Amino acid sequence: MVKLVVLVSTVGGAVLTAGAAVFASAVWWVACALFVCAAAVAVYDLVQRRHSVLRIYPLVGHMRFLLEAIRPELQQYFIERNYDGRPFDRDVRTIIYERAKGIHGELSFGTERDIEQVGYEHLVHSTVPLPVADTPPRVTIGGPHCTQPYSMSLLNVSSMSFGALSGAALTALNRGAAAGGFAHDTGEGGLTPYHLSGGADVIWELGSGYFGARTDDGRFDPTTFAEKATDGRVKAISIKLSQGAKPGIGGVLPAAKVSAEIAEYRGVPAHEKCVSPAYHSAFSTPRQLVRFVAELRELSGGKPVGIKLCVGDRSEVLAICKAMIAENDGPDFIIVDGAEGGTAAAPLEFEDHVGLPLTDGLMTVHNALVGCGLRDTVRIGASGKVATGSDIVKRLIQGADFTNAARAMMMAVGCIQSQRCHTNHCPVGVATQDPRRARALDIPDKAERVHRYHQATVEQAMQLMASMGLDSPDQLDPSMLRKRVDTVTQRSYAEIHEWLDDGELLADPPVDWVRDWAHADADSFRRTVRH
User: DSSP label at 128?
Assistant: First the structure.
């Protein structure tokens, strides 16, 4: 027995020794390989001419590019405070996620915001608040020429097309909208099964490319449009003149992203660059726009037809109003997109420096319609960074009848604000056409999250209005929203801004409006100089 133990020990020791030798040899070869690779990289860094940093700091200089690549994540998770992140801060993102998941959406220990900072806004509550209404209010869309009016929710899914978002994300949004009874805007990428399969009410957006209703040469095709617009799921049509993220320019979908499926729904060649022109070919003047609206309404069987725009020159809005008066017709609704909008990819110069913010755009359109005596027949939608109940109430005070949300709805589906929408590398499968990435998105779960987020947010808007002593959005007034204008003074929107009376522009334009009113021409979007 002793000899057996000695033999086993000897053999085992020999095996361990041999194994250790093999392991040491493997480690040595791996180390050599790593050294050779590092040396090769260092040599390449020294001879390449593209990056000066690497020529001076070979090998080590790559740390700079690594840190730069992960900077957004470091900023979002470790550096930014709860209330100062951009485009949406941590508090807002958290409230969206929590409401979508159906968990608590409250905070404690007081606000972290500086409520004495210039620019801070607050709503005016009442000493005698009312009980919250059981049923959310809705807005009827449809003017005197509309035979199929639509009842719109206070909050809806804003325009996002197939191509910008994955089919899975759009399906989840559509199912959520169907469950919650709110509308889903298609974006300008065409009317696709992803916008229709869930059973939601659909707003079909028609952009300058007329995707889904175009001829081979890119012009509007009335026959194809009529066939699709009369679908019972399509409740309204929206003509996109411009959008907040990039007002004044069109769009380009690179050839690599134009799959056979996207090409089919857009009516364009597959695997070729898809271009949205900066302007429409169906009209070029305000009067022609109004007539195009009337044409689409007739082709769709009398459904509401509206326009969407980011406001630029006030005289152009007034020109559309003059055309509406001259033609005794016009859009049933106008969606105002703020310059802070941003689901579309755009050059930095356009994202940061072109177009009016939503607040200014809303008040411009509202006052123009009121001043021309048209506000009773035209509804206004607000689109641009709407995410919370207070956002809804503020926009209604500023002139809107309903609101649309894009990025907030994306977050309800799972977006983490990685800001890689334009790269096709969305880490959660929302803004991508990569099947592997889109597969990560569980449609039934995300659809329910969209429904819960919408329900909770509208309920908060209703609760805010009840706390203000109101039982209807119609009772909201500019005096109920106040803003700090300097370190010691806060004033209401009724005091800060000018609000026109019904028909005032037709009778006697105020001094601040005289010049723009004179420059507005129903037959031209260009400013007309009148002496």
Answer: S
Q: Where are the beta strands (DSSP E) in 149-283?
A: 150-153, 155-157, 183-185, 201-206, 234-240, 251-253, 274-276
Task: Judge whether 384 and 338 are in contact, CB under 8 Å.
Answer: yes
194, 197, 198, 201: CA torsion to nearest 10: 90
Amino acid at 405: A
CA 29 from centroid of its chain's CA atoms: 54
The low-confidence residues of the chain, meaning pLDDT below 50, are 5, 8, 531
Buried b (16+ CB within 10 A) or exposed e, 431-452: bbbeeebbebbebeebbbbbbb
In this predicted structure, what is the pLDDT of residue 338? 86
Residue 468 has a CB neighbour count (10 Å cut-off) of 20
Residue 430 belongs to what H/E stretch? none
- Its sign, for the CA torsion 389, 391, 397, 400, is negative
Whole-angstrom CA distances from 59 to 30, 63, 186 are 19, 8, 48
**What is the value of pTM for the model shown?**
0.87
291-329 burial, b at 16+ Cβ within 10 Å, e below that, comes to bbbbbbbebbeebbbbbbbbbbbbbbbbbbbbbbbebeb
Burial of 344 (0-12, 13-18, 19+ CB in 10 A): buried
Closest by CA position to 196, among listed 233, 228, 160: 233
**84 C-beta neighbours (distance < 10 Å), count:** 11
> Can you read off the two tokens belonging to residue 104?
């608590």
- The closest alpha carbon to 307, from 397, 350, 258, 368, belongs to 368
Give the whole-angstrom CA distance, residue 72 versus residue 326. Answer: 52
Q: What pLDDT is recorded for position 50?
A: 83
Please say whether the beta carbons of 275 and 451 come within 8 A. Answer: no
- Confidence at residue 8, expressed as pLDDT on a 0 to 100 scale: 46
Q: How many CB atoms lie within 10 A of CB 176?
A: 29
Report the pLDDT value the prediction gives residue 241, as an integer from 0 to 100: 93
Quote the radius of gyration of the chain (alpha carbons, Å).
Answer: 29
Question: How far is it, in rounded angstroms, from Cα 445 to Cα 94?
Answer: 18
Closest among 204, 200, 171, 165 to 188, alpha carbons compared: 204
Instruction: State the DSSP string of 494-508.
Output: HHHS--PPTTHHHH-
Tens digits of residue pLDDT in 468-500: 999 999 999 999 999 999 988 999 999 999 999
